[in-house]
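Many introductory courses stop at the sequence. We go one step further.
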Amino acid sequence: MRALDIMTTPPVSVHPSTSVRDAIALLSERGYAGLPVVDDDGRVVGIFTEADALNYGMDASGELRVDAMMSTPVEVANAETHVTELARRMLADGLRCMPVVTDGVLVGVISRHDLLRPLVRSDDTIATHVRALLDDYSGKRDGWHVTVSGGAVTISGAFADEAERAVAAALARTVLGVTTVETNFATSGVTS
């Protein structure tokens, strides 16, 4: 699963010339942890976070622009970045949100909330998506049984060989909300 699969889009952002008060209003009204600050070409030049807003509130001296209070440099992710890498970077750096860019232009925002959402996806929904992928792969030959419990997927049935078993497991891992995948040969009892 990649950033583009779970990011919030379209992203809400502010311009460097936006007033700090307007940015704080956006943060509080929408419940965001941070707002990407983008230039006229849509490129991320900073981020205005709750911490920046609190610093402004403690030192409110006149009407400041966002570019005077924003955090720089800002860490961004590519739309193709895998969610495990996003989670690792966000935890390691204490980030609550991260702008997502394609060719340097803002296309979305990832928050910790976005990373949590796949963890609570319905098992029935996950099973339906896994079955659809397996049906597409196998030409609907109906040889596998899929069960899901707490995001843990088990695929049972007759696989042509080890390679087919590995492909079925890899396909299941691409489904949003899957935590682990186990495959069982119906006849040989091999488990992975």
